Amino acid sequence: MRFPRRIRPFAMVLLCAGMACTPVLAAPALMPQPVQYLPQEGALPLAGGVQVQWQGVRSPLLERAVARFEQRLAALSARPAVAGTPAGLVLRINCQHADPDMLSIHMREHYQLRTGTNGAALVADGPAGVLRGLATLLQLVEPGEAGPVLDGAEIDDSPRFAWRGMLVDVSRHFMSPAALERQLDMMELTKLNVLHLHLSDGQGFRVESRVYPRLQQVASHGEYYTQQQVRDLVAHAADRGIRVVPEFDAPGHSYAMLLAYPQYAAQPVTAPLDPKRVVRAAFDPTNPDTYVFLARLYHEMAGLFPDAYFHVGGDEVRPDEWTANPRISAFMQQHGYASATAMQAAFTRRVQAIVAHEGKTMMGWDELLDAPASPGIVIEPWRGSRYTAQATAAGHPVVVSAGYYLDLLLPAAEHYRVDPLDPLGNGLPPDQVAAAHAPALAPFALDPAASMTTAQDGLVLGAEAALWTEIVSEEMLDARLWPRAAALAERFWSPAAVRDEAALARRLPVVQAELEILGNRAAADRHRMMARLAPDGLAPLATLLAVTTPVRNYALNHVFGPSHVAAASIPLALDRVADIATPDSFEAAAFTRDVAAYVDGQHDLAPGLRARLENWRDNDARLRQVVATRPALREALPASGQLAELACVGLYALDGTLAAHQVQVAAVLQAAQAQFAASESMLAVRNSPQPAGDLLQAITPAIAGLVQGHM
Ligand code: ACM
């Protein structure tokens, strides 16, 4: 399909920061891309308010959705939302069914949307469809030359997967209710529909328990959700057509619970928090009281979280946590449990009975497959897609998070490339299959040995983007989740054939800018973090961080390999430059596009490229001045110097003086490329020192392209 060529001044301003560069987009940035989208001639100026004409079902939930829509439309079109202003937009909503399956995996999300000079008509199968259609409608707002307009379109849309989740780990770092509500708003805008909350792990238990109050008293550092806050959060989500699935991880990852109730621990658990024990502590599976504790706790929590699914974790149990305890080891021998895996399978059966007693469907990580498990259990593969194949072969429904771990700090495209059903590439051209199996994702990688039948595909309920927060504070949350979660929202919603990474890259900055207008704090929080590091000279730091990205594949966590830093019992400050840098550099992406066009013969782009290169070259001296009084910034200097060197190489290429600097050019490029290689996989991270400041130069491929004269 061809879109009308049109320039979007909004997107240009956004990307170019005052410098000459090419327009980036010629169609509305719809994300997720609808199943069917026909652009129509005729855009509607958005001058006044909204007049809604209801047909079919009308409910308080839908009225609140429309009120949110009006506010958001006003924000996006930069005008006040004043009730009673003449209607600029007539919006006809026809919700055809009340949908008894609302907020289940069967909820009706299909909608049809038609926009044009007469207004907008939204027909939906159910309330969830209305919500999804309103999200699309907002993405059809364009700046227009004479003010904001609603683009003409004809859309017929429904999701590919029923379960489109986002996991937020609130144990490693607590996230306030306001931060989570903000994420729910972003999820609504991108059609994600499950918030999976990892509420309990080694570092903290995060829900008020009235049955076991020591959980919040001893194991939360005072940071937990009251029961009322949980109810409010669940209601906020429900209003947006989003389910909340709680996870209380056991038998491993349970140090916090066991700190509060050490009588259920397999090995002694003591305060203060012991960093070596925090990842190991596990429940004692041989103590009958363990199951009484879990049954009473899960009963209380199941009452707080109304969703039909209940996640019990089950990942990463350390066998010697059990086998090194003589009493547990004797019990295992006596009862014929030959291994910790067999012991865990018995534990899982007990827990499943507890969850079933609550009328819920149990969900757990792929370790539950290590021993035969009841096929009713929903498996969440995280260690690799082979577990998707293995789980579905055994009849388990599956929600895939392998390939979607946002804390690996990979760029959006690398996650986007991974399809939930794609153990064999699923129709990808061979070169892209190779890319999808790149070592960057190992051991979360797709497994070429796995393959699935259509029946197995049908068991894949969907997928989840996952953010583990060992090194993510609340202030970093929005930038670590977005816009990459929006790219995954598309992967989980849109047809499998939607996989054009260049189109993704062009839309991402526009979508992110819209999300920020509507409440996302990524840019604002990064700005505050930069201002704290460089209160008297933020601009040079911002220039550096706009084109550098953090090292990948857990190199920034410094938990293994040559850059290992001993785990601290005091949480890290998380105020380093690499904590502010983002996995996707929009500025580098725009520069790379321009370089590609330039080496392809578009030579009028030279002045714009030169201006950017000179700015990066000269930025180093400016940053050095700031660092003179801000020693915390010193670790950014090597990256800043390297950016200047890369910029010089780019300028040599533009000037035609590469030959005179051959040795320098080769050394600068090689150094920058080697730094990418040092964190291209977890294996590489184990074996390679990381660059000073933990920063990668995102313009490296573009500079290499300028040097080689092709991309
Ligand atoms: C996990 O990442 N341990 C589920």
From TrEMBL:
Active site feature: E316
Domain Beta-hexosaminidase bacterial type N-terminal, chain residue ranges per copy: 28-157
SUPFAM superfamilies to which the protein is assigned, alphabetical: (Trans)glycosidases, beta-N-acetylhexosaminidase-like domain
GO biological process entries: carbohydrate metabolic process; ganglioside catabolic process; glycosaminoglycan metabolic process
Ranges in a coiled coil: none
Residue stretches making up the Glycoside hydrolase family 20 catalytic domain: 161-495
Keywords from the UniProt entry: Glycosidase, Hydrolase, Signal
InterPro entries to which the protein is assigned, alphabetical: Beta_hexosaminidase_sua/sub, GH, Glyco_hydro_20_cat, Hex-like_dom2, HEX_bac_N
GO molecular function: beta-N-acetylhexosaminidase activity
Signal peptide: 1-26
Gene Ontology CC entries for this record: lysosome; membrane
Pfam families according to UniProt: Glyco_hydro_20 (PF00728), Glyco_hydro_20b (PF02838)
Record family assignment: Belongs to the glycosyl hydrolase 20 family.
Name of the protein this chain belongs to: N-acetyl-beta-glucosaminidase
Source organism per UniProt: Komagataeibacter sucrofermentans
Highest classification ranks of the organism: Bacteria, Pseudomonadati, Pseudomonadota, Alphaproteobacteria, Acetobacterales
